[in-house]
Amino acid sequence: MSQTQMLKGIIDGCLLAIIQGKECYGYEMAERLSEYGFCAVSEGTIYPLLMRMQREGLVTSVRKNSTAGPKRKYYSLTEKGNQALEDFLSRWSQLEKSVNRIIRQETKGNDGNNGTTSTI
Amino acid sequence: MSQTQMLKGIIDGCLLAIIQGKECYGYEMAERLSEYGFCAVSEGTIYPLLMRMQREGLVTSVRKNSTAGPKRKYYSLTEKGNQALEDFLSRWSQLEKSVNRIIRQETKGNDGNNGTTSTI
DNA sequence: TGTATATACCTTGTAAAACAAGATATTAAG
DNA sequence: CTTAATATCTTGTTTTACAAGGTATATACA
What we know:
2 copies of one chain form a homodimer.
Chain A: H1 11-21, E1 24-25, H2 26-35, H3 43-55, E2 59-64, E3 72-77, H4 79-106
Antiparallel strand pairs in A: 1-3, 2-3
Helix pairs in contact in A: 1-4, 2-3
Chain A binds a DNA duplex through α2 and α3.
């Protein structure tokens, strides 16, 4: 039960969310994920993921010059990507509810999660 | 982005929670997960997982007769399993917060829930 | 008796995902 | 000239969930 296993199928949804918020490039997404509390998602994870999502038509990319360093590859959501994001949001919501239901009903004297049942 | 991918590293934590709630056997756990909203977690997933957790010393098992069918293998949590459950609860809580923070701040069409950027 | 059904466990092989550990460039600062 | 920060990509490995089977027990019913 490593921490990375719990990210499977979730990181790509988070990337879609970040891209929807604002056109963005891979290196920056890694930093953003880190800020959001994910512990250092590897670039070896992010870049293949972005390429796969582009291959699937969820995102498009444009290369732009950077003021400090090599060119950046900015990603944007396609219509299909927007749909995929919505699918992710609904699946995440369902998963969250199911897991929290189990935790609430099955565990006794639990810590780590005090009554704040997250909305969404 | 399949639905099963999002379960990676989460099902085992949920099983630990179910077992903590009450001594339980594999076939019943599958039914419980289904009731909790997980869509039909395969027995090909659950049994190998339980055996792995026993190998790792997180659970112990006892065979007992059933009133209708073959013998059941009841699992209980060890001290180590209790610790593993607590680890899972804290990791899940952290993941939940991170993902919801991203969703709240990055996606549009979000409900008016104001995102206070709490640390950790 | 035979057979269908629900119960209960287990195995094998496969695909997807995340990551470590690199390789490769570009730009600025010392 | 060297170092560091920025930026992208590749290869090989490990973990995980699952499909698709197999085996066995007990009950109900014809």
